[in-house]
């Protein structure tokens, strides 16, 4: 059971660092808005479609680019994140989905507490 507790602690520490970094950026309100919306996008559209969308937006949005990089860092992905996601077998894909939902839960909590403003992307 301590392995699960350790993972939860690492996840929360990582998320805190991610939001701390985002809070120093000019696009912090967009970041806050996006981390709040992404979990519902994953549940509605699926992990692959959501990250394909983020991939398509990251060239024009620094907030999406940072989120994409942070997720890649969390999974320690050397290759392109979206390719890694879509190449996964079904059990690993489901586990990755659950892990990302847990990570984004922490990101949302910290973004709400650390980033001023409503974070509606305006």
The name CATH uses for the topology is Peroxidase, domain 1
Taking pLDDT < 50 over at least 5 consecutive residues as the criterion, the unreliable ranges are none
Overall 3D form: globular
Identify the CATH class. Answer: Mainly Alpha
Radius of gyration: 14 Å
How many structural units, i.e. domains? 1
Number of helices: 6
CATH 2nd-level architecture: Orthogonal Bundle
Give a quick account of the main beta sheet: strands, pairing sense, barrel closure.
Answer: none
Helix % is: over 70%
By CATH, the superfamily comes out as AF1862-like domain
Topology:
Layout: H1 2-22, H2 28-45, H3 47-57, H4 62-75, H5 81-86, H6 90-114
Helix pairs in contact: 1-4, 1-6, 2-3, 2-4, 2-6, 3-4
């Amino acid at each position: 059971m301590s392995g699960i507790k350790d993972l939860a602690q690492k996840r929360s520490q990582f998320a805190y660092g991610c939001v701390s970094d985002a809070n120093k950026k000019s696009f912090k309100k967009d970041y806050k808005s996006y981390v709040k919306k992404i979990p519902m996008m994953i549940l509605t559209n699926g992990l692959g479609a959501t990250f394909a969308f983020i991939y398509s937006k990251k060239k024009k949005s620094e907030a999406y680019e940072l989120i994409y990089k942070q997720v890649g860092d969390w999974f320690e992905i050397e290759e392109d994140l979206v390719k890694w996601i879509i190449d996964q077998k079904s059990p690993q894909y489901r586990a990755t989905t659950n892990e990302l939902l847990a990570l984004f839960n922490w990101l949302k909590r910290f973004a709400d507490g650390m980033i001023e403003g409503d974070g509606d992307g305006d």
